[in-house]
């Protein structure tokens, strides 16, 4: 009789064990598992994105980009402030060239061996801005009341412009090489005046380059070339 009871007890225990196993399987089938009492079930999955360079890249891509430089140009660092821009959209003029004249130039007069009876005038820009040499030098030898004419064939194609430190040239035909000139005489002083844009008047102050101590001989063949950008062009006539 006791053996029957023992068997029944064992069968009851086995049944309980099977029932518990079935409950565990049923609980797992809902995808949540069995949780301990007091632990709250999350309402949904929580995902934390790892910190990476992708965030910085996205931030950089969303930031406004600086305008790219036009093709053929080079950009280095930050551009310096520019001058005021007028309504036209063009930069305001800076360092606009002025007319060359005595106060912003240095003039030297030197006799030439070739061509004979010629004097070379060299004008150097000593100012801080570029300047224009318009027309030809209006030279006055001694107490002359008129300036000599210009050699028309020497007129350049463009106005001579001198940057600070640069020089322009003109030559003076003092007298006829064959002695055919008249009213020949020796002079010891020279004044060089500078023409304005219109060419009909002198501007600024004149220059007073010294002549050789013995002076120079001039006659009615006196003539000057137009201002030239190069020395070679100035001594062609």
Shape: globular
Number of helices: 3
User: Beta fraction of the residues?
Assistant: 15-25%
Specify the oligomeric state.
Answer: single chain
DSSP summary, beta strand count: 11
* Helix-strand pattern: HHEEEEEEEEEEEH
Q: What's the end-to-end separation, in Å? A: 154 Å
Biggest sheet character: 5 strands, mixed
Task: Please give the share of residues in helix.
Answer: 10-25%
CA gyration radius, whole angstroms: 50 Å
SS-based structural class? alpha+beta
Mean pLDDT: 74
Uncertain runs are 1-94
General description of the model:
This protein has helices at residues 2-29, 53-62, 231-234; strands at residues 98-99, 105-112, 118-125, 131-141, 160-162, 167-173, 185-187, 190-195, 202-207, 216-218, 223-224. The protein starts with a helix and ends with a helix. Strands 1, 4, 5, 8 and 9 form a five-stranded mixed β-sheet that branches. Strands 2-3-6-11 form a four-stranded antiparallel β-sheet. A two-stranded antiparallel sheet has the order 7-10. It has a domain at 99-234. The protein is built from three helices and eleven strands, in the order H-H-E-E-E-E-E-E-E-E-E-E-E-H. A hairpin with a 5-residue loop joins strand 2 and strand 3.
Top keywords for this entry?
five-stranded mixed β-sheet, four-stranded antiparallel β-sheet, globular, 11 strands, alpha+beta, disordered N terminus, 237 residues
């Amino acid at each position: 009789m006791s053996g029957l009871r023992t068997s029944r007890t064992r069968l009851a225990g086995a049944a309980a064990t099977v029932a518990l196993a079935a409950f565990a399987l049923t609980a797992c089938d809902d995808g949540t598992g069995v949780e301990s009492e007091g632990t709250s079930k999350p309402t949904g999955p929580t995902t934390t994105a790892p910190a990476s360079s992708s965030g910085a890249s996205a931030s950089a891509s969303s930031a406004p980009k600086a305008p790219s430089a036009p093709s053929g140009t080079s950009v280095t660092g930050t551009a310096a402030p520019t001058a005021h821009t007028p309504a036209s959209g063009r930069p305001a003029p800076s360092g606009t060239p002025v007319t060359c004249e005595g106060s912003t130039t240095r003039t030297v007069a030197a006799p030439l061996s070739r061509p004979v009876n010629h004097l070379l005038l060299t004008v150097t820009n000593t100012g801080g801005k570029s300047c224009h040499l318009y027309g030809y030098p209006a030279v006055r030898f001694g107490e002359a009341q008129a300036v000599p004419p210009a050699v028309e064939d020497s007129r350049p194609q463009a106005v001579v412009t001198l940057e600070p430190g640069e020089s322009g040239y003109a030559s003076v035909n003092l007298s006829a090489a064959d002695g055919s000139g008249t009213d020949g005489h020796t002079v010891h002083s020279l004044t060089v005046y500078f023409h304005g844009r219109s060419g009909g008047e002198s501007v600024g102050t004149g220059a007073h380059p010294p002549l050789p101590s013995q002076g120079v001989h001039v006659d009615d063949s006196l003539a000057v070339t137009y201002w030239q950008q190069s020395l070679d062009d100035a001594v062609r006539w």
